[in-house]
Amino acid sequence: MQDKQLALAVQLHDEETFTSYHGDTNNNAVVDLQRFIDRDLGDVNSLYLFGNSSVGKSHLLNAAATYANEKGLTALCLSLSELTTLSIELLDGLESIDVICFDDIELIAEDHKWQQGIFDLYNRVVEQGKLIIISGNEIATGLQLTLPDLVSRLSWGLTLQVKPLTDEEKMAALRQRAAQRGINIQQDSTAFLFNRYSRDMKALIACLDKLDTLSIQSQRKITIPFIKEALPELNT
After folding, report:
1. Long-range contact set of residues 37-41: C-beta below 8 Å, sequence gap at least 24
2. What is residue 236's DSSP assignment?
3. With contact defined as beta carbons under 8 Å apart, do 197 and 170 qualify?
4. By C-alpha distance, which of 82, 79, 55, 76 is closest to 138?
5. Predicted confidence (pLDDT) per residue in 183-217, tens digit
6. What totals of helices (H) and strands (E) does the chain contain, helices first?
7. What residues contact 156, with CB distance under 8 A and at least 6 apart?
8. Of 24, 42, 50, 120, which is most buried by a Cβ count within 10 Å?
9. Are the C-beta atoms of residues 22 and 165 closer than 8 Å to each other?
């Protein structure tokens, strides 16, 4: 089991912390996540985090795991989009982890086996007095899960909604992500990218990485003319 846990642990993204999560829109959710891990919210072992796509749920889950590590706790942050391609036996023994996080619970809406596996693990986590955080794109009762008991468990503990960031918060987050990765890009270039490419944060970050690679290869700075050349589809 230890080898399995070590293999899964590499999915934690160190740059995704509570400090690097921009904006005040979800400040209450950030504070409550920290208090949950600190055991400052009473006798509650589970937390369900929900919100639309690209509001930063994955970032917050990774931030929660990083925060737990900083507190001397063991933690794993796992994406069900990747986990369900592996054996369900990987869930065995995860209740020994202090804080276990699962992203995108909606992806197992039609997989009864994985729903049962998460349900069973949920119960073991609570029995062991550990913590579990699960994210989804809808409130628990709107997930269309086929296992009513799992819906009930998701509704048991603390529920937090992650609201969409403002455009200003997204821009600030994009600039900070660029700075974290050592990408030299001017504010007018990030504004151009934001207005012409996408407002989806995952898409923007992936685009930023692509531009960084191309700029290194061509030995050019990431300017608006460079972006137009690198991404000709923006010119249409």
Report:
1. 37/64, 37/67, 37/68, 37/71, 37/73, 37/99, 37/131, 38/71, 41/158
2. -
3. no
4. 55
5. 878 888 888 888 888 777 778 888 888 888 998 89
6. 10, 5
7. 46
8. 50
9. yes
Residue type, 49: L
Strand ranges across the sheet with 99-103: 75-79, 99-103, 131-136, 46-50, 158-161
102-119, pLDDT tens digit by residue? 999 999 999 999 999 999
Residue 145 is inside which H or E element, if any?
none
* Residue 196 to residues 131, 190, 193, 222, 233, Cα–Cα distance (Å): 41, 10, 5, 15, 10
CB 155 within 8 A of CB 148: no
**CB neighbours of residue 166 within 10 Å:** 13
Euclidean distance between the first and final Cα of the chain, in Å?
53
Residue type, 57: K
Query: Hey, what are 153's tokens?
Result: 């468990």
Residue type present at position 9: A
Domain annotation for the chain: domains and CATH numbers: 2-161 (3.40.50.300), 167-235 (1.10.8)
Residue type, 74: T
Bridge partners of 103?
79
- Report the amino acid identity of residue 194: F
Residues forming beta bridges with residue 47, ordered by sequence position:
133, 158
Confidence of residue 81 (pLDDT cuts 50, 70, 90): confident
Tokens 């930063």 sit on residue: 56
